[in-house]
Amino acid sequence: MRLLHTSDWHLGRAFHRVNMLGAQTEFIGHLVATVREQAVDAVVVSGDVYDRAVPPLAAVELFDDALHRLAELGVPTVMISGNHDSARRLGVGAGLIDRAGIHLRTDPAAVGTPVVLADDHGDVAFYGLPYLEPALVKDEFAVPKAGHESVLAAAMDRVRADLAGRAPGTRSVVLAHAFVTGGEASDSERDITVGGVAAVPAGVFAGVDYVALGHLHSCQRISERVRYSGSPLAYSFSEAGHRKSMWLVDLDAGGTVTAERLDCPVPRPLARLRGTLEELLADPALSRHEDAWVEATLTDAVRPADPMARIAARFPHTLSLVFAPDRAPDDPAVSYARRLAGRSDQQIAEDFVAHVRGAAPDARETEVLRDAFDAVRATDAVREVAR
């Protein structure tokens, strides 16, 4: 069976101030053409179809168009909801849409009930694990403490239990939206940290033939059977080095996986430039970036006059201008934001306690801080679902 694995469309999202609807429309056209040209048997979309719980009308219309075009091809599509989606909204009408070969899996309680498709070698069971917010699904999976690893492990127990009751030789595909250990993150994914731990080990998914992951925006291979497709478009300058693509996966009669990356259309390349303003304006080696979307980081010791207008004269598609004067690490002028870069909320809070009190928090206090952050995230998740 030949699968096309994609995820993280983020329909409705902009790139800085640039409306990406045109590029997203081009991607949907490319997706449909790929399904036809590559004789794809099934499409899997591993979450974050939309960029927010209540997407703009234009994004909903594009999603509707995508579903109609895929259904017209007669190629089954399996989709799950991600942490950016409203699972309830995305799942509306799922029972009816099933009849058209579009299978929306947004209900955590149904993780052990697969979509079963068949080829010349027998059945392939597709299990959809939508994004599982630990605080909201803890009771459903009867885990003692909310955490990504515990709820995913419980969900996979249901998958393996169902698979064990099926005919010998039944192959299996799991769609999941999660941060798996070993994955490379970027700046454009929403934080899903709970209990201080966001990542789950790939071993959680043991026992199935292929795991189609969503959430991280870089196309990557965790193992031969566990892969992220990444987002089809770049949504932050941290993705400047990404090759945006989808996985074309062949699952043979014995469940052996072979996969090929298929490139997605690039609306405009990204470039991250760093140097003084005069260096960026004069360097001939930068000519290749003059048509790119540019993030320019200026290292001038003193902020130059009219920097955006001057940089845009050479790089007209400059979207971000950052000031980061080159200074010694111990220089008191180094900004607070730079000192906090890359640190989690938990680490920042612990550092604040140590700064104010003169001693780091002990184990009990660290647990109190962690529980407080978990409670805030759980409240935000409940509000998002209720919107």
Automatic annotation (TrEMBL):
SUPFAM superfamilies: Metallo-dependent phosphatases. It comes from the Bacteria. Residues 1-218 form the Calcineurin-like phosphoesterase domain. It holds the Pfam family Metallophos. Coiled coil: none annotated. Belongs to the SbcD family. This is Nuclease SbcCD subunit D. The gene is sbcD.
